Automatic annotation (TrEMBL), chain A:
Residues 183-312 form the Glycosyl transferase family domain. The lineage of its organism: unclassified sequences, metagenomes, ecological metagenomes. It comes from freshwater metagenome. This is Unannotated protein. InterPro entries: Glyco_trans_1, Glyco_trans_4-like_N, Glycosyltransferase_grp1. Residues 17-172 form the Glycosyltransferase subfamily 4-like N-terminal domain. Gene3D superfamilies: Glycogen Phosphorylase B.
TrEMBL record, chain B:
It comes from freshwater metagenome. Residues 5-123 form the Glycosyltransferase 2-like domain. GO terms for cellular component: plasma membrane. Gene3D superfamilies: Spore Coat Polysaccharide Biosynthesis Protein SpsA, Chain A. GO terms for molecular function: glycosyltransferase activity. This is Unannotated protein. Keywords: Cell membrane, Glycosyltransferase, Membrane, Transferase.
Amino acid sequence: MRILFLTWRDLAHPDAGGAEVYTEHVARRWVAAGHQVTLFAASVPSRPGEEVVDGYRVVRRGGRLSVYRAARRWYRASGQGQFDLVIDMVNTVPFTAHRWITDTPVIAFFHQTAEECWRFNAPLPVALVGRYLLEPRWIRSYRDRTVLVVSQSTADAVARFGVTNTVILPEGFEPVDVPKVGKEARPTVVWVGRLVPYKRPQDMVEAARLARLQIPDLQVWFMGGGPMLEDLRSSAPEGVEILGRVSEEEKASRLARAHVHVATSAREGWGLVVSEAAALGTSTIAYNAPGLKDSTIAADGQLCPPEPAALAAFLVASLPSLQAHPRAPIPYGGAHSWDEVACEMEDAVLAFLGRTDRAIGTPADATWRRAVVAAH
Amino acid sequence: MTTVSFIVPTFNSARTVTACVRSLRSQTHPDIEIVVVDNSSKDDTAARARAAGADLVIIAGPERCAQRNQGAARSRGQIVVFIDSDMVMEPALASQIASTLDSRPELGALIIPERSFGDGFWTKCRALEKSLYIGNESVEAARAFRREAFESIGGWNVNLTAAEDWDLDDRIRAIGVKVGRVGAHIWHDEGRLRLRGTFGKKRYYGQWIAAYLDAHDNGARRIRRSGLLDRKSELLRHPILTTGMVTLKSFEAAGIYAGMRDARSGRLAVLPGAHA
């Protein structure tokens, strides 16, 4: 099959994140199975407008905001009739490809919706317009379309805007080597992420202060850099260590040595660090936030109300048993192998096209069960 | 080991049921049972409850008191605890309930303190309001019961759909059962509160408030909420939230009043959206 992905960034983009990793893993495996894959993405300084990466073709045109118009222009000039399927990767701003591609079937893919993240990422007037006017209109334009998502949370989020024909795909995870380290002697909490407001690191600091009233030797490690680093460092109470950015080895080692991993983000697409902690034998207590709850449930962690007092109570109640009986590492941290993801996504698009000619076989360690979400 | 049975009535509760049931599943107490009683939801509440680890999911109705009684009848614990589907329990709750009732035989029921969380301004006002009720026995009602105490009063009053928690609390105290309390909290997920929504909901529940007041001599003390003004320093510390809370309570009072009038005039309001 000849497949075109429309996406705002490719993996070469300096701000590429989890969504781009997902696309790249799938594209690489699809090409290996015999498909022809093209990625259309925004330009990246110092990278060519067209190149072949790991067997798939990357076409780069336009910038942060103009990539959407550039996609349309490029498709009219050189895309018509060249593909059997177009996958519209929606990252807040959509390509709405189904409106201007009429010669080829188009399926959309949502990693996550933005919603409250507007507040943290844009000045107030833009955030209000974005959250309450633009994004609802954008999402609603996919009503009556088949939409692929990576979590129940995203399925629920788009359903609120009338997009109910969703297929949930598994989230992928690259296995990690479990470092040969034991658990810490002191009760230890680890928090990983960029120190930005929407990840709410200050909630963890406040919960640590409250929990230490009952567990005086509790220690908390923060790993990750970001604009709040200096503020947090200067105000951190006793027992709280703000480590800043650390190497991958140190991150894995500390994740494995801690008794519990805490995640306090307001929203995630999936919350990959939860899977990582679980793969290293560390259980998670997470705020019950979209996306974060999906990875936490998959990793058999605990969901906590998004309040520091609740988090402190969860820590105080859970730490003794987590210290006494550390969890065994969970394969793929509750997520799935990328081979399985590539296979499931191929299956989903073939079903959408009404075809059955699979090029990728189900991996031996597959555990995913596809669920088509009921409308509500 | 004392078995603690949690009974959770649900109706179109897909948004909250997973967090609720999972918080019960990850209680530190080793012997708990989770019974979800779904009132034929139109969404996938029952499937989500099963996936989250409920031991038993049964379908029953027509209202939440009947659901709770059915759930209690199908459960096996020596202690029954009634939970709403939009609540999240702290992990130590079940063990505190079991150890309190095991060590204090004079107690037959327990109050569990509640706090609120959710999005937006009105939810923060509600959280302030709930924080003022902690320890206020005219507002709080027992949720955890020794099975024999619960069964001796015939369970929940199926003729009430609002104030049924006070009704049960009043009746169990009336037969001489002592009510204690635990320290672990229940966290109530208010979602995003809206004034119009809260008016409609209270109007719906207001229909049964009249019936409750008729049945209980001291019922009015429950409704009046004079306790809200007991902690003035707490209110002065949050002037904006206090103003919001007064507004919220005014809308709710107006809703309840409208509902009581509906009931007296024989008109029955319909609940907007989901309940239970």
